Amino acid sequence: MRAITILLIFVNGFLLFPAANAQYRPDTLGNGYFSRTIEQPDDYEGKVVCTLIKKEKLAGSNKAVLYVHGYNDYFFQTQLGDSLNTWGYNFYAVDLRKYGRSLLPNQDMFFCKDISEYFADIDTCLSIIKAEGNNDVYLMGHSTGGLTLSAYLNSGSLNCSGIKGLILNSPFLDWNLGFVLEKLAVPIISFIGGCYPNFVVMKYDHPTYAYTLLKAFKGEWTYNTDWKKPEGHPKKAGWIRAIEQAQNKLMEHSDIQCPVLILSSDKSTMATKEWQEIYTESDIVLSVEDIKKFGITLGKETEYHAIAKGVHDLILSRKESRQETYRTIHSWLEKH
What we know:
Layout: H1 2-13, H2 16-22, E1 25-26, E2 33-43, E3 46-55, E4 63-68, H3 78-86, E5 90-95, H4 119-131, E6 136-142, H5 144-154, E7 163-169, H6 179-195, E8 200-202, H7 208-213, E9 235-236, H8 237-252, E10 260-265, H9 288-295, E11 302-307, H10 319-335
Parallel strand pairs: 4-5, 4-6, 6-7, 7-10, 10-11
Antiparallel strand pairs: 1-2, 2-3, 3-5, 8-9
């Protein structure tokens, strides 16, 4: 019996990895991208999965970057993965539960009651990435993905100890709603969210930000608008509570041990329904002052850079700004 137990441990612990590679399939992105669906324990809505996407592995490289998208988002930014590959890093991204490739019919799109719900997805992806021979792993997060990764690294998860660095692309570390709404309305809605998490607070957004990105309007990009909706998705009190609690915990105490790079545009603009050209060269979602203010307090070794004329997702900015973004990320990675 002891011999059988040892054999099972060997099979589960060591022979799992070739089998895991076999579970990848060509991704819809093509061009050497693959993805695999990972089943997670059921939650309050039922079945849950996340999806790990990767660029074909580089021969001889044991360095990797795992990218986590923002709210109303999924991974489609192949230029990011291709650039990191060129620099010698194996590239991975995750579509978190209830987003993009991971969205299931039983689920409310993008919804969570606590940011920590995503930690299991990140843990699982990191375990696979390390099992595939990557010893030096960096995390990169955009907007709400940046908040999630910051909360994750501040949580003390066992997987955090091996992370070499954190790159934050316009992280959602504070609301951009003005003093009255942030200090009065958000706490009240958050309280309601503890009792009535499914209470809808806001139905839809104006698609101004989508206009700055989509090639069909003012931008340069094409993406799946069923997964990244131009007018957003109804926001519920439970989700607002999850965001507020995660932000408050980081503001109260954050001690991320690895080096942190914080990036944002050099300016923010409050968007209206009337189109303005300045929307294509500023952050119309978050306050860059807040990003810097709270970003530099995340850990002992933080570094902030403002990208001239960047939009909210800096790697979807116009060419000059995204090139500056890539140069900054590459320089920081080389230094660390």
